[in-house]
Write a structure and sequence with these properties.
heterodimer, A: alpha+beta, Translation Initiation Factor IF3, four-stranded mixed sheet, 4 strands, globular, B: 368 residues, mainly alpha
Amino acid sequence: MEKVDVRGLSCPLPVIKTKKIIDQGATEISVVGSTQVSLENVTKLARSKGYSIDIKKDQKNDWEIELKK
Amino acid sequence: MDKSKWLILSTGLLIGAIAVTLVKLGNPPNMGFCIACFERDIAGALGLHRAAAVQYIRPEIIGIILGAMLTSLFAGEFKSRGGSATLVRFIMGMFMMIGALVFLGCPLRDVLRMAGGDYNAVVGLLGFVFGVGAGVWFLRRGFNLGRTQESHSQFGGYIMPLVFVFLLFLLLKGTVFNPDAGGPLFFSKEGPGSMVAPLFISLAAGLLVGFLAQRTRLCLSGGIRDFILIRDSYLLLGFIGIFLGALVFNIGFGFFKAGFAGQPIAHSMHIWNFLGLFLVGLTATLLGGCPLRQLVLSGEGDTDAATVVVGMIVGAAICHNFMLAAAAAKPAAAGVAAVAGGPGIYGQIACVVGIIIMAVIGWTFREE
């Protein structure tokens, strides 16, 4: 599983970093982040790319999700 | 269209309508809200610059920060954080203000000006779009100002809102600290700074916009950025909503007047309208948000965004002290010659230097 760490990154870097891994053709990606905005943006991107989203942890300022295709 | 898209479109419509209503109630024309102009007015009220026509502690700014703070507290999103290239962000805030005052407005006022029929603002929009595009070019090449750190103490995040609570106190009290000099506080007796909606209405409007912008993450540079970068139109709908809401209210109140000439607090030097907002678009994209978004983030505990806001206020003082801000075009009146308007040579130099410095920051802060 590919890992992406977007904690502490401002817009739109969480999306850019996740998209880079998606564009490499990864089918399983784990993403960790620290703001609700980045969670919203990364899940929106993943959904638009046809990934299913499994939320492992969502504590407002500390989240972890798994994307699968 | 899904629910969230309807929500941000309605938010935009409402903000556009509120902005024009504030003009009806006394704010300067096509300036119901202008984050850059209003921060500049605050700098003037505090005596950081002495341009007599633009001095007032704008309650809208106080409202936006406090509205965003209260909303983020209720949503559990308030978090004190910072430490990502702080001084760089301060300098970028200064240049974002220089770009805005060369054009005469932030991106929010650009939309409001277009909705008032000001064609100069369309030229500004083109510059803004190209500026955001240039910012995206650097983002695609690995631009990153670095990660912020969450603080172990929440207090740092409250400092910016507390500063603005203190400004509200000063505004209500109206103390003149140095009566011999006439201030500070300075409050304009004529010009845009003297045109104000009733204090508590302005404050309430700010609180409401702070709430709406925090919830929807409204960001004008983000709207264009996300569309260029990932063809996502969510934030762009907020942008379009503001335009439509303001357009309908401008027509309703009889404020709409199409053309290049005779527009309020504007000039027709096309190249500088373009380059001014080019600088704002580029800087805002590198900073991760437009001047409005920086205010909202400051209310959420983001001390990096607060640093940008302080940089913008200092930048406004520099703009007026060093004659960088553009002059508004004015027709000839009794005994007064017409003013062509636009930035002087120092403003033009500062704008170009700003674009070069932002490009250097964009290039040198690449990760790989």
